[in-house]
Design brief:
The chain has 2 helices and 8 strands, in the order βαββββαβββ. With 128 residues, it is an alpha/beta fold.
Amino acid sequence: MPIRGVSKVVVGVKDQERAKKFWTETVGFTVTTDVPYGDTGKRWVEVTSADGGTALILSEDEEDQFPVRGDLPTSNFFFYTDDVQQTYRELSAKGVDFPAEPAEQPWGWSSMFTDSEGNRFALQQREA
């Protein structure tokens, strides 16, 4: 059986509560897991996209964060949307920072946004 895709992605955060609030209240994900694990006092916090296709594990660990490099995203994955310009307008109205406005690139329409923890994510328009 072939690999069919990615199910979960670890996102390094400084503050799990702040990150959970950003991803749920601002972006529209749903908390699917929020439980302590081990005897370290750490929590497993997982949020899932509205379509159920993508889960982010909000890991409170500085080592999980990628370094800032120029005008590039700090994550190694892209989010997608049906309409980058509409998503840009909606999230900007909610206070989400977009260091790069939507622009048409050789690979299609894309943009970049920053979460509450300073992580920068690519956002690409999925073509029909």
